């Protein structure tokens, strides 16, 4: 199996290297510019149909795929699937999986790596912003116009999640889709230290806003937040990237 054999939509996109400037917050005391080396990221977030393969393959019963800390949390909380798994309005096969924690996203990536022989991981926040912003400092993936119902799922213009292919006008300069709105996307980077190790209890960065957010600021490509990695309450999803050896996207 290869990652491209996953039920669609799934494609890899190669992003050229370049600079990104991150806002202050968390491990960054002031706005900071990073040089990002070329990398590969998924064009779309992971969908319910794709995540279902992990569940069906015993992903929640096999500690092999989980970090040591994440497995302890899974056992303590009794997780058998994402928080909103199977709920109406969120269960479309091509809608992004929603209600996953950072631990679950990491476990999926480890499982997919073993299944495909590829080094699948979560993007760093630098990679995520680079994939969405390109070289012109745009405020949203599609440019600097405020979000509207033709570009992304936000402000409850659809009362639930939508297929990851539904908003082609919201594509980034590199054709990466659904980066803003629909679900917040979990990144690999620690809010507290900036590290990218896939274990531990450090808060982790999420990007992009979600379908209930009604402030354009929340959906800006530079917006950053750092929830707890075991948080199941918020409307989190994720997309994959390929490991390129860069510790923090620099």
What does this structure look like?
With 250 residues, the protein is of the alpha+beta class. It has a single domain, classed as paralog of FGE (formylglycine-generating enzyme) (Alpha-Beta Complex). Helices cover 19% and strands 14% of the residues. It has five helices and nine strands; from the N terminus they run E-E-E-E-H-H-H-E-H-E-E-H-E-E. It has helices at residues 48-56, 68-77, 102-116, 125-133, 216-219; strands spanning 12-15, 18-22, 32-36, 39-42, 120-121, 184-190, 204-207, 236-237, 241-242. The strands form three sheets. Strands 1-4-9-5 form a four-stranded antiparallel beta sheet. The chain has a three-stranded mixed beta sheet with strand order 7-6-8. A two-stranded antiparallel ribbon has the order 2-3. The two termini are 31 Å apart. Mean pLDDT is 95; it is low at 245-250.
Protein topology:
Blueprint: E1 12-15, E2 18-22, E3 32-36, E4 39-42, H1 48-56, H2 68-77, H3 102-116, E5 120-121, H4 125-133, E6 184-190, E7 204-207, H5 216-219, E8 236-237, E9 241-242
Parallel strand pairs: 6-8
Antiparallel strand pairs: 1-4, 2-3, 4-9, 5-9, 6-7
**Low-confidence stretches at least 5 residues in length (pLDDT < 50)?**
245-250
Number of helices: 5
Cα-atom radius of gyration:
16 Å
Instruction: Quote the CATH topology.
Output: paralog of FGE (formylglycine-generating enzyme)
Number of strands: 9
What structural category do the secondary elements indicate? Answer: alpha+beta
Percentage of residues in strands = 5-15%
Q: What is the CATH architecture descriptor?
A: Alpha-Beta Complex
**What is the fourth-level CATH superfamily?**
paralog of FGE (formylglycine-generating enzyme)
The CA-CA distance between the termini, in Å, is: 31 Å
